[in-house]
Amino acid sequence: MYGRYTQDLGTFAKDEAARLRLQEGDTPRPRRPSELLEYTQGRCAPCRVCALQCQRFLISKVGEDWVFLILLGLVMALVSWAMDFAIATCLQAQKWMYGGLDTNVLLQYMAWVTYPTVLITFSAGFTQILAPQAVGSGIPEMKTILRGVVLKEYLTLKTFVAKVIGLTCALGSGMPLGKEGPFVHIASMCAALLSRFLSLFGGFYENEARNIEMLAAACAVGVGCCFAAPIGGVLFSIEVTSTFFAVRNYWRGFFAATFSAFIFRVLAVWNKDEETITALFKTRFRLDFPFDLQELPAFAVIGIASGFGGALFVYLNRKIVQFMRRQKTINRFLMKKRLLFPALVTLIISTLTFPPGFGQFMAGQVPAIGVAHQSLPQGLHKPQLTPAHQQLTQKDTLVTLFDNQTWAKQGISDEFEYLGILEAWRHPRSNVFVTLVVFILMKFWMSALATTIPVPCGAFMPVFVIGAAFGRLVGESMAAWFPDGIHTDSNIYRIVPGGYAVVGAAALSGAVTHTVSTAVIVFELTGQISHILPVMIAVILANAVAQSLQPSLYDSIIRIKKLPYLPELGWGHHEKYNVRVEDIMVRDIRYVTLNCKYRDLQQVLHSTKMKNLPLVESAESMILLGSIERTQVGALLSSQLSPQRRLLALRQKVLSEDGHRLSDSTIRFQISTETSSGTPARPALRKPLKPALKRVPSSPADSPPAGSADHSGIALKNLFCANASTEPTEGVGNPDFSIRLGVRRTGGPLLTLVGMPYPLPCPMAPPQILEWEEQQLDQLVDFSSAKIDPAPFQLVEHTSLHKTHTIFSLLGLDHAFVTSIGRLVGMVSLKELRKAIEGSLTGKGVKVRPPLASFRDSTASTTEADTTALRQLWDRHQHHHMPREAGPGGDDDDDTPR
Amino acid sequence: MYGRYTQDLGTFAKDEAARLRLQEGDTPRPRRPSELLEYTQGRCAPCRVCALQCQRFLISKVGEDWVFLILLGLVMALVSWAMDFAIATCLQAQKWMYGGLDTNVLLQYMAWVTYPTVLITFSAGFTQILAPQAVGSGIPEMKTILRGVVLKEYLTLKTFVAKVIGLTCALGSGMPLGKEGPFVHIASMCAALLSRFLSLFGGFYENEARNIEMLAAACAVGVGCCFAAPIGGVLFSIEVTSTFFAVRNYWRGFFAATFSAFIFRVLAVWNKDEETITALFKTRFRLDFPFDLQELPAFAVIGIASGFGGALFVYLNRKIVQFMRRQKTINRFLMKKRLLFPALVTLIISTLTFPPGFGQFMAGQVPAIGVAHQSLPQGLHKPQLTPAHQQLTQKDTLVTLFDNQTWAKQGISDEFEYLGILEAWRHPRSNVFVTLVVFILMKFWMSALATTIPVPCGAFMPVFVIGAAFGRLVGESMAAWFPDGIHTDSNIYRIVPGGYAVVGAAALSGAVTHTVSTAVIVFELTGQISHILPVMIAVILANAVAQSLQPSLYDSIIRIKKLPYLPELGWGHHEKYNVRVEDIMVRDIRYVTLNCKYRDLQQVLHSTKMKNLPLVESAESMILLGSIERTQVGALLSSQLSPQRRLLALRQKVLSEDGHRLSDSTIRFQISTETSSGTPARPALRKPLKPALKRVPSSPADSPPAGSADHSGIALKNLFCANASTEPTEGVGNPDFSIRLGVRRTGGPLLTLVGMPYPLPCPMAPPQILEWEEQQLDQLVDFSSAKIDPAPFQLVEHTSLHKTHTIFSLLGLDHAFVTSIGRLVGMVSLKELRKAIEGSLTGKGVKVRPPLASFRDSTASTTEADTTALRQLWDRHQHHHMPREAGPGGDDDDDTPR
């Protein structure tokens, strides 16, 4: 984004543009003359011209967005469908195994427990080995990536493979895990890979901004093709990944998600699973009178309870992770045996759900009656896979929970029959309420625990199921309480518990993810929108409660994983309008001046950990000229103290000593300072740096530094003490005089002189090296080779916290300089902003209420580890600090250590 | 937004914050000691303390967002419901009139035509007189306002009243107009008024950023309570008003829109219109098999045709407006008789829809059979208002179009009965296809024409109805073509033409408005989501076609009204990634240097029309220090040449002449430059201005500038130049010597000297004034009193067009300076960006394809009229230009004109 623009990127873009223009000129144009020639000569030439134009047209279209989006949608629909198929097969295999062993309960138990354990362990091991980045949901990482942070290895083919296979195994095990979060990640990886693939045809896929846009669309596709919910998918992906959303991306998301959902459902039709395209979990609630106005309080209760439940889920999930990390003995043990934890968790959960055991109380086994399955609703995905004696799969559970009938005994009508998979909810020795309560309680902690397993998995679906069960519980209670409905008129409208289940599912998943678009998702999933107002009310209430208690699940994971984040501004925190940048900014910042010395750079690097250092005109004027990255400063410093330069100085020394012997040959050195920076500095950018350039000559011949002219002896010795760089530096000298240096990694210098018959001057001793370096540090810095961001983001002191937050999230900044008419007065980084929002005392004592105070303990600053090599270099200087006046004279004794 | 931050605003915010802190400290704290006293004394004191705390809590809550949003939702629901009621009454009155006169066709015609004409004319006249801003949809204006542009008088109470009453009358007339667009505007006005009202209780409603957020939520409420469609409302309002959307506003929108839709529907239930809360236009399509996969091509055809139709509608609408404007004779005539145009249009339309006349072919009169109305669907709003002999209202039309039955004769089943209001579509001498085609064609141009009437009206609803009719036409054709459905299996699933109507309505309204959220709106309106995929496909295709042909209706109006806008980046215009700021920026820009003279300011103002001028350090360094508004520069200049200063100079002159008389009293002058700027300049802000301040001393005693030391007479005169402020400047002198100045607005100086017994010196003659002004112009500018934006938005040369567009739309900028390491090198404004996007040749010859080329002729730059008074002042100087050397010396003759 803006503010990170470096000279390098600029020149890169320029080169790229030039290349593209050339390319465009290249591919079609050379053919033109021949075409025209053909046209004038042959008779079928018009056809050929036409064909060529068509071909060209097609190639040009490959680069267009809609082609990309259609391909993305298609691929993701296929992936989603294939994965569903594989998961269903896995589940079927388990059931077949379990069913085949019904003679012996112990064998049954073994089969029941071993199968998921093996699958989960394989999934965990596979992801661990291939790509550990594939672990977990992926939505937190996508949120971070869409903020502009580059996370390595998160969008590669390896991760894609690991995630797809790992997720299939994990879901095939029957654990309470979801595929929705991982699908967002899979779709994003798919988009990244696809754009890399398509860039072979067109050149437009390399642009960073475009990639971000495509990733945003991909997130929508991920949710869309997972639930066949294009609208809900787009909205959900916006809510969980973005702070500010470009409406033009929204478009792309809709297009791709619709296409993807369409193909996903068409595949089901083609596979004869369904007759036509309908919703995934179709419901059949009555349309005329979906609910009574007087039922609304019950829906509100569901919403509020779901809010608390959602917050509890997030809290529980985080506590489990933190407990595992904090308990050192557990942690150490688990680190050694990484696959033990997944296996253990799976073992516990599958033992508890074992149908003949405790599982019978949570919609597990149906004791005796094997009912026909013809009465199953059509919308059910693979209903034939569900024998009567089994635990319900997640999908079957949802279908039963959204069922139209009322399970509890209603008044006189006692003859209610549990049909088909509804059987699972009936228990001979208890009633449906007990089953539901046990189901909810057990599933709750199981899901919270299962989602901490290091396999690719999401928490949306488990939470959705729990919410549906809770809603159903409330609905059944209402139905038992008002057997003939609440309405007092002549018409009797019974209460529909299935509607409550829909409301509960939307509310709880909304509370856990802090989204309202779950409402849209349930409409698309059930194919009915008649409960829109109850759902919206419940979701909003659930969100209001959950947001005031806990961060969303994804934000929680972001903080656990210590990814960079910016907390949201809560509702109604007016204080944000009154706190201003000057209250929160860091005033005492380190800066680089245009006329500073290398020693100053060193000091600045020592004294601060900022990733970007401001470059000011001078310490007096403090006019901000730009910002320079820490790594750039480090590179400047290390290139100034580099062994190459030392070698050259030594070389220079030798030459001046042995000048009489070499007087007949011309000696020239060419070290281009630009080579070290990778890209040549452009003239336009150099202009303002004139003062710096005047002082440090940038001529091709790197004349020996003025300060070190008198210590030529030390310089000579230092010259051969190569330390930092391990690569042989070729082309240092000119053809007249070529030196080839090879440096052994162990530190001892290995010197090979080509075309030089003289005995080798021995390398400098450490003290001399230090002395030489001290001299180097006193030179003025030559910024011409550094990449300077010429327009870092600036704020003014009066900018409100609210506005600052907006700008930071809009532009994805991680720092901004505070200026006052060109003068640098301070700096604000994500850290300060985070502190201010989360409620630390600000500079002026304005206490900001912490919206997420309960969470502050796990907040840690994300400082970046410095490049250790550089660090050591500085440390050495710090400790072996040699006073300038100690040894100004040259010491010729090059072997004796002091 | 960022970049418009002025020093003034900053200090204002500071004062405001201080005030609030004081206030917070004031209201609750002074009571504390007494409370504690009471607590220790009385026994019921705890209750009182509790009550006080509750009161305080409630007051503190008034300032919170959710209270505001609930109030907004409530008010808007009431407004919407009341307006619907009034409109229904109006329509009923017309029908009653028409029905009562059924003895005479001529009288019937008179009544039929006069009634709407009177209503529309009244509406047009009323809005014209009270608030012309209320005319039209309001969405274009809201889009502009949400971009950060301040449109005057658009959010006032007057406009609110005009819009509500005007809209009620306009819709009550039965013309093909909609209430949706105006409702967005009404909701925004309501929010603005509400926040002004609530600011009486809390102080947090004054913040600009917050107001924008609340307006965004209000737009959602507007759509939400108009259609009882909270989700669609939020999405639609986002799509039509925003380019970048903050997800936190999305929240607010959902909350308020849901509440509003809820109340809106609850009112209907309480009014016994409905039994419970259901959708507005409830449909009853079958759930099991909503559509066949093989019907999808038909849906796609609807989408594509709607795309063309939508583009045609926008084109037609614009052409009508342009025709009216361009035809000078018509225009002149219409300008004189403003109410003639509305009356004429109404007359034509109502004549054509007269049921016994042509109206019978467009669902107008039903010849004979008066069928019972009990069979009407329940969801119908006010069905009892629809007698059989009437033209259908918009709502009734929609209900009939979405009907579940098939109108066309299907195979053998000839005995189909048109029931209730469905009668309207049957004509004895033609079939339903003819009726539908005539209806679509006539309504199409009628709607396009009617929406140009200068009354508050929207085009969404008419377009929606036309789309539904078109969809129905296709559906009926399909039903006639495949009487037993397409499906080849054993089950016969007949085609549901109502589903086609839903698809058509969403597609056409989506095409006209360039939104996809119309899909969500139809789901919420019909209460069924089973057709989600056909609707999404049709809407996306319609959008793709319409967007490539025409701008959206709202953008079209924005351009017609010449509001500032930024075109969207189209799909797949990769060139945007390669065009860069340096290709499009204006290099030859005027600037103000820190050490310039007033004469330079004058020249700059003459030579450019830029609203913001860059302030650079010097012409050599070109380091950008900030930007200064044009009006500020004008103010600086006019204060320097103000009559007050002239008067003071004169006064000085008199004093120096009469110095001998006053030699015994010490004379000191104190003019605080800070007083004139309204707020004291803060020391931190002043520092960077040091160079300027060195030249212009900022000590309390305003000593004469160094440059003009030789004209000490003039400098002394300058001393009394209390500038800019028209208020009497008190405290200018010290107690020794107090002068009170009053300036008559007419220009003639009025001098009041307090405590000074000398006779008034007569004003200068014009030549002397000119001479004096010439002297003034040669002084160095004192920027200390000017408001300088210390951090204007900066781009670098390499920023791509794409990124620039993003930043401009994100931050709502209208210009940005291009810098290169602090140096100003150019400027980009909305105009350049617009040009570059819309396809002018850029500097490097990169031809950008115009996405909206057909529309470019109506694009005009929106230059702002300068303050004429100031302009005249400069013009005078330009023409009467007097050379410096003509009269440097002071002229003592103050009465004689030259």
TrEMBL record, chains A, B:
For this protein, the record's Pfam families field holds: Voltage_CLC (PF00654)
Q: Does the keyword Magnesium apply?
A: no
Q: Which InterPro entries match?
A: CBS_dom_sf, Cl-channel_core, Cl_channel_volt-gated, ClC
Query: Composition bias, kind Basic residues: at what positions?
Result: 684-693
Q: Which GO terms describe its molecular function?
A: voltage-gated chloride channel activity
Q: Where is the composition biased (Low complexity)?
A: 697-709
Q: What is its main location?
A: membrane
Show the ranges annotated as biased composition (Polar residues): 667-679
What cellular component terms from Gene Ontology apply here? chloride channel complex; plasma membrane
Stated name of the protein: CLCN2 protein
Upper lineage: Eukaryota, Metazoa, Chordata, Craniata, Vertebrata
